[in-house]
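dude i think i finally got it to work??
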Amino acid sequence: MRSQARALALAWLILLGGCVGVELERSIDASGFELSGRIAVRYGDEAASGQLRWRHDRDGDEMLISSPLGQGIARIRRDGDTVTLSTADGGEYRADDAESLTQRVLGYRVPLDGLADWVRGRPSARARGAPREQRDARGRLEVLEQAGWRIEYLAYAPDSGLPTRLRLHYPALELRLAITEWNAAPGAN
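look at this
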């Protein structure tokens, strides 16, 4: 029963289109990046997809998840040591880290700390555990295992060398990212 409730929460967050369009509020600093693209989530037998916009820098993150039609669904913000998740129905939840917050609210973990490095094609110093890496002939990551996650790098942008398609696996959870736009600050890679 609990897994069904989690799956329904996941589907609700991805598919509900009750909010008007929302914009990112954070500014980007010289250590950060901004990306946008699509996200697909499979949790157990449930699956959903949507759009993703994310700004990251050393002081915080702001991640917006929207329906396939672009209506705001959820916003995850990290300001220093506080993470806030706001939902389309006006709910607002707080915790000290994104993984425990998303586990509590959504029923699955979003590895925000590690993800900021993983989407840039490198292991994370913030994620727990030593990384295991498999690289291609060009030295780019093909597979990275860290903090219980397995990240598969399916495509890279020819101009920037940044990943554009990733598949992340965690027990009973799969996240797929298709990054369509990168705005990495100089020296942020």
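The chain has a mean pLDDT of 81.
im so relieved honestly
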